[in-house]
Amino acid sequence: MTLIDQPTATGTPRQETPDADGSRAITIVDPQDGTPVGTVHSADEADVAAAVQAARQAAEGWAATAPAARGALLHALADALAARADEVAELNTRETGKPAGDARGGVDAAVGTLRQYAELGPLHRTHSLRGADVAVDYTRPEPRGVVAAITPWNDPVAVSAGLVGAALVTGNTVVHKPSERCPHVGALLGEIWSAPLPEGVLTTLTGDGRTGAALVASAGVDVVAHVGSTATGRAIAEEALRTGAHLVLENGGNDALVVDADVDPTWAAAQAALGAYANSGQICTSVERIYVHADVAEEFVAALVLEAGSRNADGMAPMVDTRMRAEVHRQVAAAQAQGARVLAGGEVPEGAGAHYPATVVVDVGGDSDLMREETFGPVAPVQVVASFTEGLDRAVASRYGLAATVLTGSLEHTTEAIRRLPVGTVKVNAVFGGAPGGAAEPRGASGQGFGYGPELLDEMTTRKVVHIGRPVLRTAG
């Protein structure tokens, strides 16, 4: 089994090279201009086994640590990250191409997430149960043991803080394997976060897909928490059938946007552009396919082309690497070959780096990869529909179930969409946003389990039912 975090295409700038001792190493280049970022060791099976063993040895002592003390240590992790926020954000931008403001925002979100779990962990409640008056019945949450946290490259700091923070504060030990696309960010997080913790409580392993495969296959791992591609999530789920590990998976999405006839088409186009082009389309809940009502389609498409042109004139941030760019362009070119028309972007620019323009594609066939699969790039494919119901029907028809958005002024259409869309998150009149602490449960090919919010504490623990009855004591004499 090999675990990779996105489909393979040609032209990868990431190179596997030997360490000084002949073992594996990973070299990363800056997707902005192709200059080297650095080389890290790629952990092998022996490294994985040692990390899992250390986590297992530390598990009993960490689980016995008072919840308030674990929460205090999580605050210490947040403090340590905040103190080096600029350094982490800058490295993230160099390694993944994430815009500087977004990269710093991800660090700030990570600090907030660690503080949230530092406070929620000690308050993680049990339940009392109604039994006999002379007995005591309740549930007791207990840590599951060793958590393998396998995190992505598109938001590596905030996602890592969520999975690692929730696991640690509930008394689990963690082996963290960051994406092979951002191993330097992962290694730096490991350095920052492991310093305040007891030995073995948090270990970070940089490495490629073989490192992840060895970690998932370990019998010493009790939970696998993974954010990444559907292909990797499926491979993890198959391995978990053998190991019995509990799974928390947030995998690929193909999020739909349905534009109703009664909304302002220029506003709708701005929402579509935000959803499709933010972070160069490399967000788990990016807008991946658009169904626009025929009554506003002409104005909507014209406004969307202007939105794309404005972003291209300002200069889009690069994609994470040329391997990912090649896959995105393959989908666009294949749609063109099937009759689709590209109205903006759609061409691989010359020069160094992994840039790809904001792209608008119309007349896209429903059976094309651009509409059926996760694209994960700055592409807005549009289909015109005759009614809101037709658009909703097409949005529902997907194997993915991460999120979806509807733009409508109709309460009837809003409630219909909320009821019918088989996704973890339904957004109405905003492609991004939501209250803090929200925890969505993806469906279908998009994963399983709660990966965020207070519910993640439940995923990281198992419940034991306790019944204490009244004893019959021995009588004297």
The CATH class of the largest domain is identified as Alpha Beta
Helix content: 40-55%
Let me know the CATH homologous superfamily of the largest domain: Aldehyde Dehydrogenase, Chain A, domain 1
Strand content: 15-25%
Q: What is the arithmetic mean of pLDDT?
A: 94
Poorly predicted regions are 1-13
Q: Radius of gyration, rounded?
A: 24 Å
Structural class: alpha/beta
| Bulk shape | globular
Protein name: Acyl-CoA reductase
GO molecular function, one term: oxidoreductase activity, acting on the aldehyde or oxo group of donors, NAD or NADP as acceptor
Biased composition (Polar residues): 1-15
Keywords: Oxidoreductase
Structure description:
The protein is of the alpha/beta class and 477 residues long. It folds into 2 domains: 15-251 and 446-464, Aldehyde Dehydrogenase, Chain A, domain 1, CATH 3.40.605.10; 256-428, 3-Layer(aba) Sandwich (Aldehyde Dehydrogenase, Chain A, domain 2). Helix content is 41%, strand content 20%. The protein contains 15 helices and 20 strands. The protein has helices spanning 45-64, 67-83, 85-96, 100-120, 156-169, 183-194, 209-217, 230-243, 265-277, 294-314, 322-337, 369-372, 388-396, 411-420, 455-459, and strands spanning 15-18, 24-29, 36-41, 136-143, 146-150, 173-177, 202-204, 223-227, 246-250, 256-259, 289-293, 341-344, 359-362, 379-385, 400-401, 403-407, 425-428, 443-444, 447-448, 461-468. The strands form 5 sheets. Strands 12-13-14-11-10-16-17 form a 7-stranded mixed β-sheet, sandwiched between helices. Strands 7-6-5-8-9-19 form a 6-stranded mixed β-sheet, with helices on both faces. Helix 5 links the parallel strand 5 and strand 6. The longest helix has 21 residues, at 100-120. The protein is globular. Residues 1-13 have low confidence and may be disordered.
